[in-house]
Sequence to fold (183 residues):
Amino acid sequence: LREAGPLVYLSKYDVYAFARYREVYDALVDWQEFQSAAGVGLSNFRYEKPWRPPSLLLEADPPRHDAPRRVLQKVLSPRSLRRLREGWLADAEDLVEQLLSGTREFNAVAALAEAFPLRVFPDAVGIPKEGRENLLPYGDHLFNAFGPSNDLVAKGAPRVAELSGWVNAQCARNVLSDDGFGA
Fold:
């Protein structure tokens, strides 16, 4: 896409797309012209009902988006993330040691690419350990729903209410651990 030019028309989806850093950056900082409140994927929330309530962080424009963003910027500041780094490195080393001490063959996607984020991200937020496997199909549907309405979106639809309910329940203040940044 970058080679096609600074602005590309995707006729299959009837949308224009930026694929170069400069144009993407300029669009992201010009919220007055390139608004997020109508959605950040192919769906336009002004004309199509989203499958979930729009996110205050991702699918909102200033000033509605400012207060949640300030909170998140503090929580995810370089200083805050540096405090988590040591624990993340220990978790990564632990996972690798478990794999190397076990069988000679393993599925790197399941054993590392899925296991590591399911361990460190929910720990950092303060999400309880039980049921974390629900985050994978929830995230899968979330990202697929940004794209065209296709088989991938349809595949996730039957469980979306159940998974959304689980995620919302785990993010309740009284459920989150006191040491997580979600509390």
Summary: Helices lie at 21-29, 66-75, 78-101, 108-125, 135-144, 151-156, 160-170. The longest strand covers residues 8-10. The CA atoms of residues 7 and 22 lie 11 Å apart. The chain has a mean pLDDT of 94.
